Amino acid sequence: MKKVLVLGAGLVARPLVNYFFGQPGFFVTVADVEAGRAAKLVAGHPNGAAEVLDIADRTALAAAIGRADLVVSMVPYTFHPVVAELAVEQGKSMVTASYVSPAMRALDARAKERGVVLLNEVGLDPGIDHMEAMRVIHEVHDAGGKVVGFTSWCGGLPAPEANTNPFGYKFSWSPRGVLLASKNTAKFLKDGRVVTIPAADLFARPEIIGIPGLGEFEGYPNRDSVAYREAYGIPEALSVFRGTLRFPGWCDTLRKMVEIGLLDETAKDRSGVTFDGLMRELAQAAPGTDTKAAVASRLGLEAGSAIMSRFEWLGLFEAKPLPAAKASALDNLTALMIDRLAYAAGERDMVVLQHEFLVRAESGRTERIVSTLVDYGVPGGDSSMSRTVGLPAAIGARLVLEGKIAFPGVQAPLRPEIYGPILDELEKLGVRFVEKRQIL
Fold first, then answer.
1. Is pLDDT at 176 greater than 90 in this prediction?
2. Which ranges constitute the DSSP H helices of 269-409?
3. How far lies 137's CA from each of 16, 92, 99, 130, 234, in Å?
4. pLDDT interval class at 264 (50, 70, 90)
5. Which of 318, 393, 344 is closest to 171 using CA atoms?
6. Given the DSSP bridges, would you call strands 215-221 and 239-246 parallel, antiparallel or unpaired?
7. Confidence of residue 356 (pLDDT cuts 50, 70, 90)
8. What stretches of 143-249 show up as alpha helix (H) in DSSP?
9. 308 phi/psi in degrees, rounded to 5
């Protein structure tokens, strides 16, 4: 029986664990710093076990990896290189849904020497987005065509009927990760020219994106898109863009949150300070000044603007003590948003992923190919985010253990031998794309 170690029992781990419980010949150990979370995932299954593990304890982590045949790392991304290093030392393969970091890339040669597969970026974004992109790109190239433009949008959002708060957003994965992504510089290729967007301007000019059957969304650029011209093997492309989808209003609101300092990561002692006090501090409000007026003035907003109304709805002007007195503004904002932007029982989330390819066929004809995935969570069951992150990681791990993914070193799902079987199985599990083609 193959032994799988799953590190982390967070929001997206359940479909991954249950996938293995539905497969013959696998035993899954779920390890988490919180015993209750791991035990809840295992739920007494005969082919499962729960362990308490602090991944900062390198000795205990190495021992846990040593007892497994493969490790799936679902912990915060900063820990993945540590897990991978210990796995390589013991000749064990690893799978993760996170981006390949420089620290992870540095392990490539050692992993190849040991014959170890370090399969990264097999979640949703990154993950399913890569796989569907490469499927279409390879199909175009095999037919003698060229991909001259590539645009991708992805968002994890409330389903329309669950879109019930002024932010148009609810958390289905790491809240801190969502907010930190708001501080990234972005870079993309447009008409052969590299465009760089500083973090401060990330939300300044959102695009309006129409998704058939769902209406209009706003989108903003996601990290470094330029690198994907090489990664995807499309040197002919003049435009390459990857972006994030949100319901309208998110970008303006986050831009002002960044501007006033709510996403600052500097820890301070704010013992006895309330959220209203924090906002006064960030707005540099003069004594006796109304907090809302000071914030509006600092941000150049009308007191009754939609953004100020969202701030108020969130509780930023309440005389409520900060949940983390000796922490950063970001830590306290995260805690507040976890509380207010949570899914209610029975509500569904939604994943929207859309790729658009501008293709020049061998004949000279120009064609637009649009491939769209719209997936919904199960009320009272797994979220769409957990399914679209956890299932591809689980399938990838199974394929590695079965020797069907046997490319040692640091990998992403860009080869047909990797993405093909994962996409095929995802379709059987109900995660499928709809493709439309148009001659231009």
1. no
2. 275-283, 291-299, 306-314, 329-340, 384-401
3. 28, 32, 21, 10, 8
4. very high
5. 344
6. antiparallel
7. very high
8. 175-180, 227-231
9. -65, -35
Instruction: State pLDDT tens for residues 66-107.
Output: 999 999 999 988 899 999 999 999 999 999 999 999 999 999
Tell me the catalytic residues.
Answer: 125
Q: 268 lies in which domain range? A: 253-340
Tokens of 32: 């988490």
Instruction: Tell me: cis bond preceding 126? Omega within 30 of 0 counts.
Output: yes
DSSP 386-440: HHHHHHHHHHHHHHHHTTSS---EEE-S-SHHHHHHHHHHHHHTT---EEEEEE-
Give the C-alpha separation, 340 to 338, whole Å. Answer: 6
DSSP 58-122: HHHHHHHHHT-SEEEE-S-GGGHHHHHHHHHHTT-EEEESS---HHHHTTHHHHHHHT-EEE---
Same domain, 327 and 355: no
Domain with residue 53: its CATH number is 3.40.50.720
Of 319, 340, 361, the position where a domain reaches its end is 340
- Distant-in-sequence, close-in-space partners of 271: CB < 8 Å, separation ≥ 6: 325, 326
Average pLDDT over residues 423-440: 95
Q: How far apart are CA 305 and CA 268, in angstroms?
A: 30
Q: Which of 340, 362, 396 is the last residue of a domain?
A: 340
Are 126 and 77 contacting, i.e. CB atoms less than 8 angstroms apart?
Answer: no
The count of residues in the chain is 440
Q: Could you tell me if 374 and 75 are in contact, meaning their C-beta atoms sit under 8 angstroms apart? A: no
Check residue 180 and give its pLDDT.
Answer: 81
Whether residue 326 sits in one domain with residue 209: no
Q: Is the four-CA dihedral 393, 22, 43, 56 of positive or negative sign? A: negative
DSSP-derived secondary structure letter, 167: T
